[in-house]
Amino acid sequence: MPTLQQSLRPERNESGTPAQHRRVLTMDPWQAEVVYAAIARPFGYRFPRLSKAINYACFMNENVTIEELRMLASLVADRRGWDFSSLNVERDPVPWEYEEVVCALLLPEHRVLDIGTGGGEVFLRLAPSLGEGVGVDIDPEMIRVARQNTPIAMRDTLRFLTMSAEELRFPDASFDAIINRQAPFVATEVARLLRPSGVFVTQEVGDHNTQNIFDALGWDSNGAYMRALLAEQDKPPTGALENVAADLKRAGLTIVRRESYDVPYYFQDLDSLVFWLRAVPVPMNFDDDQNVRAIATFITENQTSRGIRTNEHRELLVAAKPVG
Predict the structure, then answer these.
(1) Which of 9, 85, 13, 92 is nearest to 52 (CA)?
(2) Under 8 Å CB-to-CB from 44, ≥6 apart: which residues?
(3) What is the reported pLDDT for 25?
(4) CB within 8 A of 323, min separation 6: which ones?
(5) Where are the domains of the chain?
(6) For the stretch 165-190, what's the b/e string if a residue is b when 16 or more beta carbons lie within 10 angstroms of its beta carbon?
(7) Other CB atoms closer than 10 Å to residue 35's CB: what's the count?
């Protein structure tokens, strides 16, 4: 068995440069687990780039095995709240950023509702642009995390409450703006709670987001899977942008902006891909040989110089409540 130092030495080709398109480290999966557990996992929280570097070196290769994928799934951290900041990803330029769209519409005196706030990760970043905010989520654990995430200095400005999007317990015309990022909402509740001239901003995950991952797992699309999942959970459905717009129009709102984008998106290490597969609602089960084998094949077929290729599909809609 090679020493740790020998194991960490990259293979080189005849010219003396690091070999490409093959396993980076000369270690077997057991040694990789020891290195990752001893170095990357304990220090990953404080030194995330060390964790990413070790993970990439240990696992990124053309033919990742089922055992390697399962091992990595057992090592990556659980998602806390709705925090994906640990992902090491890259995407092509996009025509808008959700937070920039929202900030451009807010005034310092505005009272704002965030439906499906998760752990408050985005809403907390928006707090300096508003006067008072309330974040709601149906999941009590999300609200617990959001409250933990709230700095003491913001606790007079932001509140977080456990509440269903179908029954928002606030008086009519309570908010100048209502925002929603990739979570279910009910158009009639949005219209009821907005003040005249108030605005509603929603960003939805498009039906064809990460389409090649759903193809690999044998599913039609992200949109089809999410609608089936929400129906099974008896939650309000998300839908294609035209359906969302129609619902808001029927509720009495005016559509003022509607856009979508679909751009290349890259997971730059396996840690990020596996974290994402475990953290989001996708039909992935790491105990299922067929699922894991499908993802292993997906990784092999979609490796590029920028990372593991997929796509990011997003849809944006801004609506306003008429005056009078």
Answers:
(1) 85
(2) 50, 51, 77
(3) 39
(4) 196, 197
(5) 92-264+313-320
(6) beebebeeebbbbbbbbbbbbbbebb
(7) 20
The answer on pLDDT for 6 being more than 50 is no
Pick from 48-62, 211-225, 233-247, 286-300: least confident: 48-62
Quickly list DSSP for 259-310: EEEEEEEEE-SHHHHHHHHHHSS-S--TT-HHHHHHHHHHHHHHEETTEEEE
Alpha-carbon span 22 to 103, nearest angstrom? 46
Specify the DSSP element, H or E, that contains 75.
Answer: helix 66-75
Average pLDDT over residues 142-171: 96
State the pLDDT at residue 233: 73
How many CB atoms sit inside 10 A of residue 249's CB? 14
Q: For the chain, how far is it from start to end, CA to CA, in angstroms?
A: 78
pTM assigned to the model: 0.80
Are 318 and 241 in contact by the 8 Å Cβ rule? The answer is: no
Q: Return the structure tokens found at 133.
A: 């905010």
DSSP letters, 2-51, are --HHHHTSBPB-TTSSBP-SS-SBS--HHHHHHHIIIIIHHHHTT-HHHH
Instruction: Name the token pair of 262.
Output: 């679909």
Looking at CATH, the fold of the domain delimited by 92-264+313-320 is given as: Rossmann fold (3.40.50)
Q: Tokens 């704002």 — which residue?
A: 112
